[in-house]
Batch of 3 targets.
Target 1
Amino acid sequence: MQSSEVPLDILTIGRRVIQANGVAVMAAETALGDVFVQVCRLLVAGSGKALVTGSGTSGAIAIRAAHLLSVSGTPAFYLSPADGLHGGLGVLRPEDSVIAISKGGSSSELNEFCRRARKLANCLIVITATPSSELAELADYVLPLTLPADADLGAIIATGSSLAAAALLDAITDVTRVLRGYSWDQVIYTHPAGAVGRDGIILATKPEEE
């Protein structure tokens, strides 16, 4: 039978990671400013879709963001840089917007994808912790994340930085939903399954925050 005692170092490591993640998420607020407002208004005013992309962990965040944007009234889809460079770029139209996520902005595959995508789409929006990067230089709009040095495990594994990008995209998701006047009734209509659909009637009766 295992002892109920947990070595202190295990808890210390766990707390340190969770605390670092929390600080990184709060740091996403540094990206809120005039460019953030412009990006939100652009996504609402546009007639096209938002293509969200990223490599590695940023790709996982991009998949999540594309789903949540669509759920909340901004048509969006995910395309990986690799698939894009193997013909997927053909999906883009002049009215579409591209949102690229990259902490360092130095992925050659992502950068080549964005270089070509920018010529096919209306604009390129970049979320990065390195606003001086090659990727940022390609962008029409840069949303910079100012992250603490210990945001990521070993400064290598994209833990806190990816959560910060997700938080910023969540902010974009809800701001665009409110700007569109996209009601909870509309959210529930396109998301009738699962707990969202089951409990939707409760959400639909909640007033919007001012």
Target 2
Amino acid sequence: MSIATLEKLLTAEEFFLLPSPLDGSQHELVQGEIITMPPPGMLHGLTCSKTDRKIGVYIDGGPGGTLVCNDAGFITKRNPDSVRGPDISYWSKDRFTEIPVGYAEIAPDMLVGVLSPSNTWKQIRARLKEYFARGVRLV
């Protein structure tokens, strides 16, 4: 259930300024509304950590660029805004000359989403639809 009020949808900039949830849950902004997700668990975190490290070693030793993890977030939609946080995102060095303080406006060149037991096919399809609409390609 959404915790945004029906009276006002949040922008990506307003969403960024919200405090982190005290209960450790994760949030995404979907069409102006905050969606709460439970913490994904240890196996999910381990998989993300190992994958990020392996990709990072390759990036640092080769093409360079910007690699982020921990659901750093990029804007997938405006008016109303949506901010999605892939587990791992990569931008080539040509596309990011400066790291934004808030969410990226530019879709990543590559992203990794590790599925959790709580993910539903409906959620996965909605997320993929937004990614593809922003130009992320399936490889």
Target 3
Amino acid sequence: MVQERRVRVLIDEEKIARRNQEIAVEIAKREPKQLLVVAILKGSFMFAADLMRALHHAGLMPQVEFMHLSSYRDATVSSGQVVILKDIESDVKDRDVLLIDDILESGRTIAFAKDLLAARGARVMTCCLLEKPGKSAVTIKADYVGFTCPDLFVVGYGMDVAHSYRQLPFIGVVET
């Protein structure tokens, strides 16, 4: 268990909510067909839930699935290997799929998931809450990005360190 420490707010709740609405409007303009949201667990669950509500307000009726992938496990640096811990159950052939991840850093996780879903016949759009420029280990650019993130280890809004801090309604940095 991580000892609770003070967390400095990097991106507050209101800014996150506004950006979710903006992203939803951008996605709705594409007029996706049979939209399926695939949220990569665990870090994206809060972002995916709020974005799904925003998509509803933008006039869309997405379905949702969850894929649990990991390249971090309990570490703060990617291992470089993506492992499927839970796959989706829906057939994605000929569907528009919005693949949601919490952070685009090395790019391995979202690239792996995108390739997997595309190989199954999906038209995949990618969306990341945060992007850390210059950290990519693979060539991938998200179709939708919430915010550019400085090179800091962030927590909150679903993201954690050793399973702590996910509950925070904002994105922050643990102070040492």
